[in-house]
Amino acid sequence: MIEPAELRKRLLALGFDVARFASIPARDDGGALPEVNALRKWLDAGYQADMHWIERGFAKRASPTLVLSEAGSVIMLGVNYFQGAAGASSDSQHPRWARYALYSDYHDTIKPALEKAGRVLEETLGITSADYRYYVDTGPVLERAWASRAGAGFAGKNAMLVSRDFGNWLFLAAIFVRAKIKADEPLPARSHCGKCTRCIDACPTGAIVSPGTVDSRLCISYQTIENKGAIPRGLRAKIGARIYGCDACAEACPWNRFAQASRGLLLEARPEIGQLSLGELLALTPESFAAHFRKTAIKRIKLAGLLRNACIVAGNTGARAAEHLPQLARLAAHESPLVRAHAVWAVQRIADGEQATRLLAEARNAEKDASVLDEHGAQP
Ligand code: B12
Ligand code: SF4
Ligand code: SF4
């Protein structure tokens, strides 16, 4: 059994804020583990929305040895991305971004450190690169369940891995390794949430359907990032000023009093994104989109996805919304039907009936797409 002290020290020296170890049972009977049962129930309830890749990767999520045969341990790494008040943008003119979005894509900036971690494992454990496999976010790994088993934090009622040292603001990464490293203890089994329900109460859409369980179909993070199509009408007003992702259930958590400013060693802050005004976002073109969001995770939702979200925010800006009407009327004739549909919704939400009809007349007459025509006919 390998003692983890030296390994932990070297992993932390690479810039990770957390390095914890969990054992993989020798006879890998993953289906019997409580978290795997929770995942099965979650999938059966349809809470994954159209993220069908989670179901496809179920067997691997349940059994790490299908990811790496003879894997004996999981190393869970955490990167603190808390930037204090600076990371929590938003006023009436600046849409609200999830904190993690105000960085260059963390998948890309954390990966080189994982490569270095691999070399540390080769040196300290005497193994080769065939004996470990690492992932950040996108692998078939139940990262929160493993992080909680490794004692990196606890599973909060908001479904987040909540750290007693960093609150809700850790990116997670995992390394499966063919070695037996002495496991860290999980936190004591008592509930760390107690009677608190702040996250559930703070969720604008009621997406936390029971403690620890999020219905993605209702979750603003899913709708604004993962959903490539139209955002359900019933959710649009509840999205408020959130243009990309949602931190409401994370922000609400009292354990964030332990949050510390990120050392930023494995991250590249992009605070200027939070400074973009709603007007600038509604005016984005393929060129300006590429320039502003180069190397960020945001670029994956593409220009049409971001304009869709910006239209919703514009429709929700209340007293000052009228100033965006000319831009929204222009977007009602955008080349993307997705953008047109949401621009129509926003115009109808802001302007009174007659004004909306006038502003949208030209776009409506030229419209051929059934889903957009439906928005033209629909009441907001
Ligand atoms: C799919 C996904 C989403 C989906 C679904 C979220 C969800 N709650 O499952 C959507 C798009 C909605 C999403 C949103 C967000 N995500 Co996300 N997401 C993932 C991803 C890729 C898979 C998660 C998954 O398997 N979900 C299925 C559910 C069932 O599993 P789970 O949440 O891991 O829950 C486990 C435990 O909580 C436990 N459990 C759950 N319910 C119960 C109930 C009981 C009684 C028990 C005992 C246990 C239990 O068992 C579950 C299975 O092991 C992970 C990366 C990864 N590979 O793990 C990132 C990940 C979870 N996301 C992350 C982040 C940051 C977010 C957002 C904050 C982004 C944002 N600001 O907009 C939001 C937060 C929403 C929320 N409250 O969960 C981080 C979380 C870091 C952390 N400290 O927890 C991760 C780990 C990515 C990373 N590498 O850092 N995400
Ligand atoms: S991320 Fe937002 S919408 Fe999703 S569960 Fe948390 S508070 Fe609710
Ligand atoms: S807000 Fe309260 S209930 Fe939710 S995760 Fe934090 S401590 Fe738990």
TrEMBL record:
Q: Which domain of life is it from?
A: Bacteria
Extract the SUPFAM superfamilies matched here: alpha-helical ferredoxin, ARM repeat
Instruction: Enumerate the GO terms in the molecular function aspect.
Output: 4 iron, 4 sulfur cluster binding; epoxyqueuosine reductase activity; metal ion binding
- Which InterPro entries does this entry report, sorted A to Z? 4Fe4S_Fe-S-bd, 4Fe4S_Fe_S_CS, ARM-type_fold, QueG, QueG_DUF1730
An example GO biological process term is: tRNA queuosine(34) biosynthetic process
The record's listing under PROSITE patterns reads: 4FE4S_FER_1, 4FE4S_FER_2
Q: Determine if DNA damage is one of this entry's keywords.
A: no
Protein name from the UniProt record: tRNA epoxyqueuosine(34) reductase QueG
Protein's organism: Ereboglobus luteus
